Amino acid sequence: xxxxxxxxxxxxxxxxxxxxxxxxxxxxxxxxxxxxxxxxxxxxxxxxxxxxxxxxxxxxxxxxxxxxxxxxxxxxxxxxxxxxxxxxxxxxxxxxxxxxxxxxxxxxxxxxxxxxxxxxxxxxxxxxxxxxxxxxxxxxxxxxxxxxxxxxxxxxxxxxxxxxxxxxxxxxxxxxxxxxxxxxxxxxxxxxxxxxxxxxxxxxxxxxxxxxxxxxxxxxxxxxxxxxxxxxxxxxxxxxxxxxxxxxxxxxxxxxxxxxxxxxxxxxxxxxxxxxxxxxxxxxxxxxxxxxxxxxxxxxxxxxxxxxxxxxxxxxxxxxxxxxxxxxxxxxx
Length: 333
Prior knowledge:
Blueprint: H1 2-16, E1 33-40, E2 44-46, E3 50-73, E4 78-100, E5 106-116, E6 121-122, E7 129-137, E8 140-145, E9 152-155, E10 158-161, E11 167-172, E12 175-180, E13 184-186, E14 191-198, E15 207-211, E16 215-231, E17 240-243, E18 247-251, E19 255-258, E20 267-276, E21 284-288, E22 293-302, H2 304-332
């Protein structure tokens, strides 16, 4: 008993002489900063379509903090795809939630976020709630991009004209469609566009396209230029359309014989050179098609044949003169 009193006595003295009015410090944990920053969602979905909603959450937490997030559906009065996650430090967290469209014409939702603080959930703040809505439709938008305006295309053999920007927008039921675009589009007399494929890799035209959601297609074309190969004599090779940047080959014969009604032997013409868009000096030549091109063959008359004809004529006349002289001399005898 004396031992117990000896222990308690100093404690009683400390309590008696404790300064009056002193307050013990209470350390309170700082509240984290957590809020919904942005929501990305489709404006329109099909009935029964599965779709995703992406929510970004910004935060600043000294300690690891437990959070809950979900989408409240006002049509069904249920919370869809609730998630639990933890945050610590500073940054942005991205959460992707999966939903499915009902038969309602408009889906009305609200993203709800809460976090644990001081033995309870914090959820009353406006920054923890974000309402949004999505329209439900039975059709999807099909968009086709053409390289030039006012071009007519076909969807299941129905003609549709592009606008002044070359864009065609139409709403269609989900399903498969036959899409056809022009194979060639004339820009000018010597320039045109030639279909080469689609932006998704397909080369078919027409093509079958399966449309189950909003779809964008681009018809891709290559520019082509026309090469005119002109010549006043003979035949030419190489006239036609060529892709931009390609190398075109053109040619004419190196010799041309042209009949002359005044001569027994035809006139002979030799190729001299090309003019206009080429200065080549060989009858077979090449040119890079960076624009419409025109080349013209130039010819030179070979005078050798005419000289031979003239000499032959003189010889014949001389022979005739001698024969005439001899015949006249014989008649005198």
